[in-house]
Amino acid sequence: MTARPQPGTEFDPDDPVIRELAAGAPTTWIRKDLPSAEAVLRDMEVDPEIMDRAAERFERFAPWFAEVFPETAAAQGIVESPLVPADAAQADLDERLGTELPGRLWLKRDDALPISGSIKARGGFHEVLEYAESVAVDNGLDPHDPATCSSEEFHTLAATHRIVVGSTGNLGLSIGILSAALGFAASVHMSSDAREWKKDLLRSHGVDVVEHAGDFVAAVSAGRASAEGAPRTHFVDDEDSRSLFAGYSVAALRLKEQFESADVSVDAEHPLVVCLPCGIGGGPGGVTYGLKRVFGDAVHCVFVEPSQAPAMVLGVRTGLHSTISVGDLGLSGSTAADGLAVGRPSRFIGPVISPLISGFATVSDDVIKAGVGVLHQTEGIDVEPSATAGLTVPWRSSGHLGEGIWSRDSTHLVWVTGGAMVPAEDRGNYVTEGLELLPTIRERSQPHVD
């Protein structure tokens, strides 16, 4: 298929990457000669203290989390996920993909994050906490006192405020669950891609769920419109939020500690390749920013999207960012990976973070679903399809990322983004379908390197 620009949208339809994307084919684009992380971060229009301040905020609220959410008490109220080696999955995929991946494969298991079970807890929780602090300050309460948010006075105040967000599912869960726990009213505008069980779970927490027949962008727009001009209402803008971004970035500080505890070095001689599922881009963008702050040029981040919803790679490749949609290529934007069902990328992440992104990959729904089967069969881990988007990408990308990366001294990290909250019946269906699709997992994609 040949992509043709829609009226008002200009791009090169003969670009080989664009042609592959338009065909819905698995696509790999590796970017060479990127500027150094130090240079990019120095010139970036992002407050250099944003990550550290977010980390401090999470620390301040840790006693409150330990009190309100008993599942976090063992970690003293720190909401964090395990880092685990995936030797069995690596051996299985070596055989299935016909190539031995040098170095070691690890999983960052955000599917197991306490409370809401997805990477979205990182950004979503942070923005809700930041808003809670602002409400406390505006009403003469001490935001640094862990007891403040547990007090009857705060809950009475919070009940007069509303937090609004648009979501395909997991961000809505994190925002809704935490808002309700703090006493805020919450409204989650959900797109047609959202799973029914996610809506039901939110309603069980007293959250107002507003359903939309349109896609993610439509749900976000509706949420924004409902919040405009409304008193004591805070809109969480997944398309352009610095607070979400800050929360996601803290993951890098936690990951550094986890690798150190596991005696895994990350430096020029021991490069780290991180494969991050990408929807609108806020989660992987914030994590990438943090990783580059922590590890510099020793880390290489690859964003992974469904082949029918390659919003971020399309925006970056054309330079049009949020002014172009996958619909402009004739793609549906529809995918089994509901958390990645985004047709238009973040207004913020593409223009600001793209110089830090080493590569992009798209994968078919069948491969994403088959990844669920791989993790179930080899590691005993059951996740939702969105979580496995990056699972096969190290085999496709790492040999082209630069000198020394395709070596036994490298570390490959696949970010597993969600799944713990999935109901047992749905989880079983994902596993059954994933096991049936295992023969399809060997997906061909010749990387474009430029």
Description:
The chain has helices spanning 16-22, 37-43, 50-68, 87-97, 120-138, 152-158, 170-182, 196-204, 216-227, 242-261, 282-295, 311-318, 349-353, 365-379, 393-397, 424-436; strands at 28-30, 83-85, 104-109, 162-167, 185-190, 208-211, 233-236, 272-277, 299-306, 357-363, 411-416, 448-449. The protein is of the alpha/beta class. It has 2 domains: 16-116 and 250-449, Rossmann fold, CATH 3.40.50.1100; 120-242, Rossmann fold (3-Layer(aba) Sandwich), CATH 3.40.50.1100. Strand 5 (185-190), helix 8 and strand 6 form a beta-alpha-beta unit. Helix 4 crosses helix 14. The protein is globular and about 60 Å long. Residues 95-404 form the Tryptophan synthase beta chain-like PALP domain. Its cofactor is pyridoxal 5'-phosphate. InterPro entries: D_Ser_am_lyase (IPR011780), Ser/Thr_Dehydratase (IPR050147), Ser/Thr_deHydtase_PyrdxlP-BS (IPR000634), TrpB-like_PALP (IPR001926), TrpB-like_PALP_sf (IPR036052).
